[in-house]
Specification:
The complex is a heterodimer of chains A (about 575) and B (about 160).
Chain A: E1 2-4, H1 5-15, E2 20-23, H2 30-38, E3 43-46, H3 50-64, E4 68-72, H4 76-90, E5 95-101, H5 117-121, E6 127-130, H6 137-149, E7 155-161, H7 162-166, E8 168-170, H8 190-202, E9 206-210, H9 213-216, H10 220-230, E10 234-236, E11 251-254, H11 261-269, E12 272-276, H12 282-285, E13 296-301, E14 315-318, H13 321-329, H14 341-353, H15 367-377, E15 382-386, H16 390-398, E16 407-408, H17 419-429, E17 434-440, H18 450-456, E18 462-467, H19 472-481, H20 497-504, E19 507-511, H21 514-527, E20 531-536
Parallel strand pairs in A: 2-3, 2-4, 4-5, 5-7, 6-7, 9-10, 9-12, 10-11, 12-13, 13-14, 15-16, 15-17, 17-18, 18-20, 19-20
Antiparallel strand pairs in A: 1-8
Chain B: E1 5-14, H1 19-29, E2 33-41, E3 47-56, H2 58-70, E4 74-79, E5 83-94, H3 99-108, E6 111-116, E7 120-127, H4 129-138, E8 146-156
Antiparallel strand pairs in B: 1-3, 1-4, 2-3, 5-7, 5-8, 6-7
Classes of the chains: A alpha/beta (about 575), B alpha+beta (about 160).
Chain lengths: ~575, ~160
C-alpha cells in the first residue's frame, strides 16, 4: 500500500492497538495531525503543554501496562517534552514519543523551530530515531514499540522531518522485527536459580526487597505467592507500592530515606537480601558501605547493568522477574516457612517499637490524616497519583495500597508537575476507578493548565492539594540541615485555588476540618468533574522517619514518642 | 587490576548514523574516561569496530561494558585480556636532522621514513602504546616539528 509518511504513523498506531494518544500540534507535525483529524480509530487528548502530554502518556502506560504514546512538534514542542522523556527513562516507563522535525532540506540551517532533537533525547531515552526516508517508517515504528515494551522498558523517541511525513512510500506493517543487536535476556539461568533456592533455605534472616520491576513485569501476584509460600518478610521500594497489599502480614513496609523503622532495620539486620526488580537506588540504600552489611545478596533483574552496579551481588540472575519467580515457585518445597518464625517476630517487634505514625497535635489538619482518610473512604476504588515532595512521601507511607498499578508517581527523576497530567492518563486508561492526585501547593502550579484538558476531555481527576504554604520538602531540609534558613520556600503568596479550578470549569473546595474534608471528597466523587480540594494543613510537619542523605539506614530520625495516632 | 588501571575495550556496532555519539555520550554522561578512540567499518559487513582505551576500577570497567551492551546498536563488547595492541604515530622532522639516526630509531619501532620533501621528512611507527611513548621520548632531540598519534587498535590473541 502506497501512502504518506503521516498516514503510516496513523496506520502503525492503529496496528499497535493504540486507543489514546496525548499530544499538542505544531508546524512540523501538522501532516500527522491532518491524518489524526481524518481517522476515528483512536482518541487524541490535547494536553495544554507538551510536558504534560508526556506525563499523561506515562500515567496511561503505568496504569494500563500498555505503551503510552505522545505526539509533539519540533523545537520548543520537543524541548518541553524532554522532562517527560527523562522521567519515563528513570522509571522505566514504556513510551513512544513522536516529534515533528523541520524538513530534511532545512536540517542544520538553524531553521525556525529547529533543534537537534535526537541529540538531546539520546541521553534520556532507551533509544531514538531520526527518520530520513518514509520507506523506513514502518520498520522504525514497529521497532520503537517493541523496544519500548520489551526488556527493561523505557521511552523511545521517533523524530520525523516534515517532508518525510509528506513523502509517499510502500507501507507494510506485517514485518518481522529483526534486531540482531537487541535480544533481552528473559529466562533466568536454571543452575543459578537452584543455587538461589539453596541460599534462601540456608538463610536465617532473609528478606525480600521488592522493586518497581515487579510491576513492569506484571509479576506482582506471582511475587505475592512466593512471599506467602516462603514466609519470608518483604520490604517494598517506593516504586513497588502495591506489589503486596497493605494488610499483608509479611509486608514490613517501605524502606529507604523515608521508609519505616521496621523495614530499614529488617534490611540492616538481614543475612540474605532477595532483590526482585529493584536497583539499589541511593534513596533506598543510604550509605552503601553500611547497607545490608552482613547480608548475602540475590539480585534478579532484567537489566544486567543494574546488577552489581552499586552493591556486590553474590547470586546474580538476569531475567524477567516473572519467569524467575515462577521457576523459584517450582522448587518452593525446598524452603521451610516455619524456619523464619523468630525472624518474623523480631521484625514485628521493630514495628511495635516504632510504628509508622504521626501526632494529632495541631489545630490544623495533619496531611497524613488526609491521606489515610482517603484510603478509608476510597481504598481500592481509587488510583492514586502524586506530585513530588512531602505529600508524595506521606502518600507512599500512609495510603493503603492493595494492588499493583494503583500508585503512580515520579520516583527516579522526582518531577514536580508530574501528578496531575499523569492522573489524566490514569483516568483515561482506567475510567472506572476514581483518579486521585495528591499534590502540594508547590507542585500543583507546575502543570495546573491541565485543568483545561480535564474539563474538555471529561477526565474528572480529584486533586487534593495539601497546602502548607511551603515548598515543604525543601523547607524540611532547610529546617533540619540549614539552621532553619527557609530560603525561597515560603509560598504564602498563592492563588485562590478554588477560583483557579472554577476559572477553567472545574470545581473547588477549601477545607480546614475533617468534616469539611469528608463532605468535599464525597461531593467531588459524586459530581465527576475535575476538582481541586485545597486542604489547609499543619505548616511545619516533617516526613518521618528520615535517613539523612548519605546516612546509614539504621540511623533514622524518628517521630518523638508521645500520644500518637 | 588496581584502581584506574588502563583497559582496552572493543565495541562492535551497527554502522549507522549517530552510533558514535551514542557511545561517546555514554562515557561523558556517566563520567567515564576515554583515553583514545579508533573507529572504522568492518570490511564486508554492516558493522563498525570501535577500539576504546579507557581506565577505571574493576567495577567501573564492568559498568562500562554493561552499559555499552545496553545500547541498542551494539552487537558485542570485548573487554580485552590478552591482546595484540598497536598504535601509530606520524612525526615530521626538519630534513637537516640526522636522517640515518632517525631511520634507525623508526626501524626499532616497526616504522620507517614514509615521505620526504624539500624541507621535512615524515616518519611512521606502529607499535604498542607504551613503546610508542618510548619512541616519542627518544626522538625529542631531533627537533620534531609535528607529532600525530592515532588511537589504539587491538585484537584478542
Amino acid at each position: 500500500m502506497q501512502i504518506s509518511g503521516a498516514q503510516m504513523v496513523i496506520e502503525a498506531l492503529i496496528a499497535e492497538g493504540v486507543d489514546t494518544v496525548f499530544g499538542y500540534p505544531g508546524g512540523a507535525i501538522m501532516n500527522v495531525y491532518d491524518e489524526i483529524y481524518k481517522q476515528d480509530k483512536f482518541h487524541h487528548i490535547l494536553n495544554r503543554h507538551e510536558q504534560a502530554a508526556v506525563h499523561a502518556a506515562e500515567g496511561y502506560a503505568k496504569a494500563s501496562g500498555k505503551v503510552g504514546v505522545a505526539m509533539i512538534t519540533s523545537g520548543p514542542g520537543f524541548t518541553n517534552a524532554v522532562t517527560g522523556l527523562a522521567d519515563a527513562y528513570m522509571d522505566s516507563v514504556p513510551l513512544v514519543v513522536i516529534s515533528g522535525q523541520v524538513p530534511m532540506s532545512l536540517i542544520g540551517t538553524d531553521a525556525f523551530q529547529e533543534i537537534d532533537a535526537v541529540g538531546i533525547s539520546r541521553s534520556c531515552t532507551k533509544h531514538n530515531y531520526l527518520v530520513t526516508d518514509a520507506a523506513d517508517l514502518p520498520r522504525v515504528l514497529k521497532e520503537a514499540f517493541y523496544i519500548a515494551a520489551s526488556g527493561r522498558p523505557g521511552p523511545v523517541h521517533v523524530d520525523i522531518p516534515k517532508d518525510v511525513t509528506a513523502q509517499i512510500a510502500e507501507f507494510n506493517y506485517d514485518i518481522e522485527i529483526n534486531l540482531e543487536t537487541y535480544k533481552p535476556h528473559v529466562k533466568g539461568n536454571p543452575r543459578q536459580i537452584k543455587k538461589v533456592i539453596e541460599a534462601i533455605a540456608n538463610a536465617k534472616r532473609p528478606v525480600f526487597y521488592l522493586g518497581g520491576g515487579i510491576i513492569n513485569a506484571n509479576a506482582a501476584y506471582e511475587v505475592r505467592d512466593l512471599v506467602h509460600k516462603t514466609g519470608i518478610p518483604a520490604v517494598e521500594t517506593f516504586m513497588a507500592r502495591g506489589v503486596l497489599s497493605y494488610d499483608d502480614a509479611l509486608l514490613v513496609g517501605m524502606l529507604g530515606m523515608h521508609g519505616s523503622y521496621a523495614a530499614n532495620m529488617a534490611v540492616s539486620e538481614t543475612d540474605l537480601i532477595i532483590a526482585l526488580g529493584a536497583r539499589f537506588d541511593d534513596r533506598v540504600t543510604g550509605k552503601l558501605s553500611e547497607f545490608a552489611k552482613n547480608a548475602g545478596v540475590i539480585h534478579v533483574d532484567i537489566d544486567p547493568a543494574s546488577i552489581s552496579k552499586l552493591v556486590n551481588t553474590d547470586y546474580p540472575i538476569v531475567g524477567d522477574v516473572k519467569n524467575v519467580v515462577l521457576d523459584m515457585l517450582a522448587q518452593i518445597d525446598k524452603i521451610d516457612a516455619e524456619k523464619y518464625e523468630s525472624w518474623r517476630e523480631t521484625i514485628n517487634n521493630f514495628n511495635e517499637l516504632h510504628p509508622l505514625a504521626y501526632h494529632e497535635d495541631s489545630d490544623r489538619l495533619k496531611p497524613q490524616w488526609v491521606i489515610q482518610r482517603v484510603g478509608e473512604i476510597l481504598g481500592d476504588d481509587a488510583n492514586i497519583s502524586t506530585d513530588v515532595g512531602q505529600h508524595q512521601m506521606w502518600t507512599a507511607q500512609f495510603y493503603p495500597f492493595s494492588r499493583p498499578r494503583q500508585f503512580i508517581s515520579s520516583g527516579g527523576l522526582g518531577t514536580m508537575g508530574f501528578g496531575f497530567p499523569a492522573a489524566l492518563g490514569v483516568k483515561a486508561a482506567s475510567p472506572d476507578k476514581v483518579s486521585i492526585n495528591f499534590t502540594g501547593d508547590g507542585s500543583i502550579l507546575m502543570n495546573c493548565q491541565e485543568l483545561m484538558t480535564a474539563v474538555e476531555k471529561k477526565l474528572p481527576v480529584i486533586n487534593i492539594i495539601l497546602n502548607n504554604n511551603f515548598l515543604g520538602m525543601v523547607r524540611q531540609w532547610q529546617t533540619l540541615f540549614y539552621d532553619k534558613r527557609h530560603s525561597e520556600t515560603d509560598l504564602s503568596v498563592q492563588p485562590d485555588f478554588v477560583k483557579l479550578s472554577e476559572a477553567f470549569g472545574g470545581i473547588g473546595y477549601r477545607v480546614k476540618t475533617k468534616e469539611e474534608f469528608d463532605a468535599a471528597l464525597k461531593d467531588a466523587v459524586e459530581k465527576g468533574v475535575v476538582t481541586f480540594i485545597e486542604v489547609i494543613v499543619e505548616r511545619f510537619e516533617n516526613v518521618l522517619p528520615m535517613v539523612p542523605a548519605g546516612g546509614s539506614l539504621f540511623n533514622m530520625m524518628l517521630l518523638e514518642k508521645k500520644e500518637s495516632k | 587490576m588496581g584502581e584506574n588501571a588502563r583497559r582496552v575495550i572493543s565495541v562492535i556496532v551497527v554502522n549507522e548514523a549517530s552510533v558514535l555519539s551514542r557511545v561517546t555520550d555514554l562515557f561523558s554522561g556517566r563520567g567515564y574516561n576515554i583515553t583514545s578512540l579508533t573507529v572504522a567499518p568492518i570490511p564486508d559487513s554492516k558493522y563498525s569496530r570501535l577500539t576504546i582505551a579507557t581506565s577505571g576500577s574493576v567495577r567501573v570497567i564492568e559498568q562500562i561494558t554493561k552499559q555499552l551492551h545496553k545500547l541498542i546498536p551494539v552487537l558485542r563488547v570485548y573487554e580485552h585480556e590478552d591482546m595484540v595492541e598497536k598504535e601509530m604515530a606520524l612525526v615530521k622532522f626538519p630534513i637537516s636532522e640526522n636522517l640515518s639516526d632517525i631511520n634507525a630509531l623508526c626501524e626499532a619501532y616497526n616504522g620507517k621514513i614514509v615521505n620526504v620533501s624539500e624541507s621535512v621528512v615524515i616518519t611512521m611507527v606502529a607499535d604498542e602504546p607504551k613503546r610508542v611513548d618510548n619512541y616519542l621520548n627518544a626522538i625529542k632531540r631531533y627537533n620534531p616539528k609535528e607529532i600525530v598519534r592515532s588511537g589504539a587498535v587491538a585484537l584478542e590473541r
